[in-house]
Amino acid sequence: MLQRCSLTLRGSLVALLASLASSAALADTLSVDDLHVRAVPPVSTTTAAFMVLHNDGDEDRSLVGASTPAAGAAELHNHVNVDGVMQMRQVESIPVPAGEHVSLAPGGYHLMLIDLVAPLHEGDELALTLAFDEGESLTLDAPVRRIETMGHGQREHEESAMSHSGH
What is the pLDDT of residue 21? Predict the structure, then answer.
């Protein structure tokens, strides 16, 4: 019995060390800047997270998922032009080419946070875990902030995009 517990503990330790090594490798090649979540009215059940993903490595990588305790679901999305109309679509992954960066921003790639468990207020922070194609994950604290729009037409576009029409 003692032998079995020792092997189980040893296996857990090996898994922990492998996970830490994987996180260190991830931190060496992938990084995140300007991470934030859009503040929305208290009645809203969805919001979006934006950031810039940097890949300083020699291999192409992909963001393949996300999660947060602040929402029932976190989905990868993009806006696409369909017959002259911008529509939001869920995507399987967001490519991050080697040596480049990808912006997750309004009107393009972004993370949708769906079924918020509580209202988010400007100044709040929420834990956001990003999952990458080789099994690594990165958990970060995302500040909630108000997004300033560039003008009346831009605000209408962003609000219609948040409605999930055509989704």
Answer: 40
